[in-house]
Specification:
The structure is a homodimer of 287-residue chains. Helix content of chain A is 34%, strand content 22%. Chain A is an alpha/beta fold and 287 residues long. The longest helix of chain A is centred in the middle third of the chain and has 25 residues, at 85-109. The radius of gyration of chain A is 18 Å and the shape is globular. Chain A starts with a strand and ends with a strand.
Chain lengths: 287, 287
């Protein structure tokens, strides 16, 4: 029996403009997770990326498929899953179990030492169950079930792992510190981690998915909008150019850029290097 | 948004006889995991336990039940699951996902900061796929499928987490560093971790399950054998008093006590405190 020493490697993280170390928080969208080849290629690029990094993953269609197989009916409102007890169980199994551990095992095979965590682990993300009476504007009030809204991120734990040269792979399941797990939007988790860690690092938040960026024409993947500021965002929403699931994603992006995150880019998972270097995707601009 | 500092609490771990800090490695058996009340009470006792601690859990009947629901046929040889690709998926979902995260969430609710890990996370446990041609004595050779035999435990990672006052909750899934997850016997994982960590700590290994200890009469829970040494073990096997699933468990226990682990006790999960204090269960004796 040999023991493994993980502290042998020197940690290299580039310094940002302000002298802070750079941290990449990268969200990988569901559709990539469903595609074995694309996921594998993405994980290779992620592994090659130098510096501190956190990967937040969604769940893809696997949870929906398992729910169907088990006869658990799924409800979606505004693209968000209504999470009853059975759905929470499926989400926890698929997100925090199957997907999370397979991503970690693949990263280990690329010599990218990583650790897969849910929000419960090490008290990483504390949340509360979304109240059924939450005001939702003209959409009335909805009970989302076991869905969490994030209260706090354990900055010390994230920092301690990163500085041991361990990347984090985070499943979108949080907890309320009273023993209850909560299904939580992965875009929001990426935003909250990016914001919280920006006290320590120069954080670059990358939302990567199957499209090349935010598109002028949802049917034309070459119609990428290079930059969006809050005024332009309002205009794009008013003209229904940005709609449906892109709205909460962009809300998260603006929340991040307006609360300490250095850079937010939205784009194609297969172009991770270009998203990092700023030569592809849509950049979110502060004002 | 608040941040949580996990480093505020002073870490207390009693010193053992040899001046080393004490580490409890506790395996919790499947049948307890299936019983919500017993599990909850066990986790409360585990939380109250002072000192460094690692919890290794099995899977209970949940994986078998899910396999049935999904129409995946299960095969067992010598009480060990044959793990095909579909079974591995179920095992990863149930063990590393559902059970692991629910245990961690419950421990958090008892203010026991814990982190749930599989063997892939942080490269915690490196294993290799068991070879189909492994000699099995007169039982011939069997292909167990995606089943792992442990090669190495990441002592530095375990130590680093324990010394941040974080308990570890370990699911019996390992990896081969080539991207392949492997189903691994939880008793063996407890043994391997106990052995590996005994270079750093005075390790007490507790195998807890639904019975009061190793029994003279499997039907009589009051017939606990107080101590077993290797000679007596052979005798008990020869007389068929110890048989079936207790044999690999005791093989693990002897392997641990003969390779640096200070104390090995087998007993009832509901009596955790007494197992720790040495007033219940079966003690495994070196020679």
């Amino acid at each position: 029996m040999n023991t493994i020493n993980i502290f042998n490697n020197l940690v290299y993280s580039p310094l940002g403009d302000g002298g802070k170390k750079v941290l990449y928080v990268i969200k990988i969208g569901g559709n990539i997770i469903d595609d074995e080849t694309k996921l594998s290629s993405f994980l290779q690029s992620f592994s090659n990326l130098e510096g501190y990094k956190v990967l937040v993953h969604g769940g893809g269609k696997l949870a929906t498929k398992l729910a169907e197989q088990l006869g658990v009916e799924q409800q979606l409102i505004d693209g968000r899953r209504i999470t009853d007890a059975e759905t929470l169980k499926i989400v926890t199994m698929v997100y925090a179990g199957y997907i999370n551990k397979n991503i970690v095992a693949q990263l280990q095979s690329h010599n990218c030492n990583s650790i897969g965590l849910s929000g419960a682990d090490g008290n990483l993300i504390q949340a509360h169950k979304r109240l059924a009476s939450s005001p939702l504007g003209d959409r009335g009030s909805i009970d989302y079930g076991f869905v969490g809204d994030v209260d706090a991120v354990n900055v010390s734990l994230v920092k301690s792992l990163l500085e041991q040269n361990i990347s984090l792979v985070i499943a979108p399941v949080t907890q309320d510190q009273k023993g209850q797990l909560l299904n939580t939007n992965a875009d929001t988790i990426a935003q909250e981690i990016a914001k919280a860690m920006s006290t320590e690092y120069e954080v670059h938040l990358i939302y990567s998915f199957e499209k090349s960026g935010v598109l002028m024409n949802a049917e034309d993947d070459s119609s990428v909008i290079g930059q969006i500021n809050p005024g332009y965002y309002k205009e794009l929403k008013d003209h229904n150019i940005i709609f449906a699931g892109m709205i909460p994603k962009l809300d998260n992006a603006f929340m991040a850029i307006q609360h300490g995150v250095k850079r937010v880019v939205i784009g194609k998972a297969e172009q991770l290097d270009q998203l990092i270097s700023g030569t592809a995707g849509t950049s979110i601009i502060y004002e």
